[in-house]
Design brief:
Blueprint: H1 9-14, H2 21-29, H3 31-55, H4 60-86, H5 99-104, H6 113-136, H7 142-155, H8 158-169, H9 175-190, E1 192-193, E2 202-203
Parallel strand pairs: 1-2
Length: 206
Amino acid sequence: MNDDVTLPDSLLTFLPCRTPAAWVSEALQHERLLLIDHAQCEKKAASTAMNLMFRYVDHPDLLTSMSQLAREELLHFEQVVKLMRQRNIDYEHIGASRYAEGLRQHMRREEPGRLIDLLIIGAFIEARSCERFAALIPHLDHELARFYRALVKSEGRHFEDYLALAEQYAAAPIEQRVQFFAECERQLIESEDQEFRFHSGVPVHA
């Protein structure tokens, strides 16, 4: 068993809840699904950053931040796929979890609200990913624990980057929207979920 990872207080305060123990237990029984969906999450994170760059070309700070983030996420994708190959796990398509869409369905449609909500949602996805890495690490084999520990260190700042951009481009304080999405996120994490994924909720059979 590996040592716990200490997450920044700012990240733990930002998230509305901790990952349920039932999800951790389920993850340990489904390493194949965990790694495949983790790879997909890294690829989707890079895609999200690129989409923001293409849509908001007149936001120079966003372009710089998202360009850096996309490169880092694609590197992590490559690292996950390499780890999977070493474990004889084939990378294949699996359906997405309800998590990201469950947050995005509440997005405002008009600008600048749409951009602000996208950035806040990105912050929650990044923060939750780090919190889940940390929740898993004490229970993983040495190789996977070491990899996830490195991801916590490198990705721990991403949620703050998203929040900083949201605050920069918002016409008004964002606290109310952050709290709104925090409650949405809590419900997705703490409610029962039909299928296991990296961001899924409580397994229905737990």
